[in-house]
């Protein structure tokens, strides 16, 4: 693909009045679809029924494709979790879809995970040496197995989750369903988002606040970095043990640049406002004389509006997006993926002909998509196309769940800004200045390692750790 991939989205709900939550999980996952379009699934259980009565369904595809009406009619329960997936670790195969559901000596456990661990091999090798057999290639299964193993030696599932989380290095937003409890855990750096909501006597955990809105739940608060929250008939309990394991916070800035939905609020910061601020900073850093500011649908539009407000150049639409064209990543060849851009987007010739255009987008990865759009604009009669990007150049890989390609595929790691400008056919090119990122994210402490290489934690070198055990995966 020519763009950064979404991460994953998690959703959990427990209705303490005993009402069925299956439909709510479906709607919650639909609202999180932007975070992952490769696979999805849900698991539900009846807390008043026998332990282990978990019903689940998962597969490759969109929520509407996998969780069809006839499937949902066969499922019911007052507690459940769901997941939408884009594969940052593990292949895109049905076996890797989530939630993961385990049956073990203490009953059942279902887990959904957003993020990526950096010490997966060490954790997995520990389990393999004790006889564990894996059915997926995801780090999420490693987490689930460690929780199950810890649960055998603890008095409650919360202690098992907490003991496991202490071992985890990396980024995670977890929702976990036990027979009688719903648990949410957020990594101590706050890299991945997680929030809490309430609808009548039902409590909801979700990656983004937009998912709460979709099921009629009121936003209560964000789960704090390093917080574990447990929802049961005994009430809500909070544990901040993990928060004390690190001294800094590092919220993923790309949530505000691209990942999160426009109507979400993450850690008290409006995503919409953040992107407007990003566009305004671009206009301050790289002003240009032009007739029209436009954004690449959909990701570049809010930043384009901010650029317009700061610069005084009128904002307008230059593209029509066909919402009924299939996803570009399923096209088998790069050439077909690139040609599908013309099917998804067409230029509004009347809006651009004879005009100098400022084209705003959230990022440039390989440069192929933006080059196609510039060519289309000029073929439609645009006199000039000045590109403005509401993030700094991608120079380093991400280890925490954002699928930034390797350096040899990152155009900015191989070429200067001037070279990229010529390669994509732009009349000028300006990236977000890195010092504006924290202000864009409302002053939050952020992780911007994909731009500056300063990771919030040490990245373990696991290359020497029994590399050949990978061949024994089932």
From TrEMBL:
Magnesium as UniProt keyword: yes
Active site: residue positions: 8 (nucleophile)
UniProt binding sites for Mg(2+): 299, 361-362
Pathway: Purine metabolism; IMP biosynthesis via de novo pathway; N(1)-(5-phospho-D-ribosyl)glycinamide from 5-phospho-alpha-D-ribose 1-diphosphate: step 1/2
Catalyses which reaction(s): 5-phospho-beta-D-ribosylamine + L-glutamate + diphosphate = 5-phospho-alpha-D-ribose 1-diphosphate + L-glutamine + H2O
Superkingdom assignment: Bacteria
Domain Glutamine amidotransferase type-2: 8-234
Keyword Glycosyltransferase appears in the UniProt entry: yes
GO biological process: 'de novo' IMP biosynthetic process; purine nucleobase biosynthetic process
Enzyme Commission (EC) number: 2.4.2.14
Residues the record lists as binding [4Fe-4S] cluster: 252, 398, 447, 450
PROSITE patterns: GATASE_TYPE_2
The entry's keywords: 4Fe-4S, Glutamine amidotransferase, Glycosyltransferase, Iron, Iron-sulfur, Magnesium, Metal-binding, Purine biosynthesis, Transferase
Cofactor(s) recorded in Swiss-Prot or TrEMBL: Mg(2+); [4Fe-4S] cluster
Enzymatic class: transferase
Gene3D superfamilies assigned to the protein according to its UniProt record, in alphabetical order: 3.40.50.2020, Glutamine Phosphoribosylpyrophosphate, subunit 1, domain 1 (3.60.20.10)
GO molecular function ontology, one term from the record: amidophosphoribosyltransferase activity
Record note on cofactor: Binds 1 Mg(2+) ion per subunit. Binds 1 [4Fe-4S] cluster per subunit.
InterPro entries, alphabetized: GATase_2_dom, Ntn_hydrolases_N, PRTase-like, PRTase_dom, PurF, PurF_N
Protein family membership: In the C-terminal section; belongs to the purine/pyrimidine phosphoribosyltransferase family.
Function, in words: Catalyzes the formation of phosphoribosylamine from phosphoribosylpyrophosphate (PRPP) and glutamine.
UniProt protein name: Amidophosphoribosyltransferase
Species this protein is from: Blautia segnis
């Amino acid at each position: 693909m020519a763009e950064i991939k979404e991460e994953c989205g998690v959703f959990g709900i427990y209705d303490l009045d005993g009402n069925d939550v299956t439909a709510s999980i479906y709607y919650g996952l639909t609202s999180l679809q932007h975070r992952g379009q490769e696979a999805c699934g849900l698991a539900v259980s009846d807390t008043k029924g026998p332990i282990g009565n978990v019903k689940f369904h998962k597969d490759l595809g969109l929520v509407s494709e996998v969780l069809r009406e006839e499937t949902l009619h066969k499922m019911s329960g007052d507690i459940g979790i769901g997941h939408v997936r884009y594969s940052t670790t593990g292949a895109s195969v049905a076996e890797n879809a989530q939630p993961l559901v385990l049956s073990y000596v203490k009953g059942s456990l279902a887990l959904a995970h957003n993020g990526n661990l950096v010490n997966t091999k060490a954790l997995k090798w520990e389990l393999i040496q004790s006889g564990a057999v894996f059915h997926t290639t995801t780090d999420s299964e490693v987490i689930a197995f460690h929780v199950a193993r810890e649960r055998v030696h603890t008095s409650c599932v919360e202690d098992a989750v907490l003991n496991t989380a202490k071992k985890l290095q990396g980024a995670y937003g977890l929702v976990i369903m036990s027979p009688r409890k719903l648990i949410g855990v957020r990594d101590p750096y706050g890299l991945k988002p997680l929030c809490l909501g309430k609808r009548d006597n039902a409590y909801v955990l979700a990656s983004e606040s937009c998912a709460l809105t979709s099921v009629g739940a009121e936003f209560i608060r964000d789960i704090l970095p390093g917080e574990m929250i447990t929802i049961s008939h005994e009430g809500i309990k909070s544990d901040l043990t993990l928060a004390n394991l690190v001294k800094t916070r590092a919220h993923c800035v790309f949530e505000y640049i691209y990942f999160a939905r426009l109507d979400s609020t993450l850690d008290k910061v409006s995503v919409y406002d953040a992107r407007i601020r990003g566009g305004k900073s671009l206009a301050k850093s790289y002003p240009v004389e032009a007739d029209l500011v436009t954004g690449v649908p959909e990701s570049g539009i809010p930043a384009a509006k901010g650029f317009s407000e700061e610069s005084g150049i009128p904002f307008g639409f230059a593209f029509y997006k066909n919402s009924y064209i299939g996803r570009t990543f399923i096209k088998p060849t790069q050439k077909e993926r690139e040609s599908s851009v013309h099917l998804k987007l067409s230029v509004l010739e009347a809006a651009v002909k004879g005009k100098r255009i400022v084209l705003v987008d959230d990022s440039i990865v390989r440069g192929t998509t933006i080059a196609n759009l510039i060519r289309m604009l000029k073929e439609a009669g645009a006199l000039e196309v000045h590109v403005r990007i509401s993030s700094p150049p991608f120079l380093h890989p991400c280890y925490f769940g954002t699928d930034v390609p390797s350096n040899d595929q990152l155009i900015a790691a191989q070429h200067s800004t001037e070279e990229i400008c010529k390669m994509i056919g732009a009349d000028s090119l300006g990236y977000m200045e890195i010092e504006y990122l924290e202000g864009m994210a409302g002053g939050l402490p952020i992780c911007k390692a994909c731009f500056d290489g300063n990771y919030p934690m040490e990245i373990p070198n696991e290359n020497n750790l029994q590399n050949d055990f990978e061949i024994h995966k089932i």
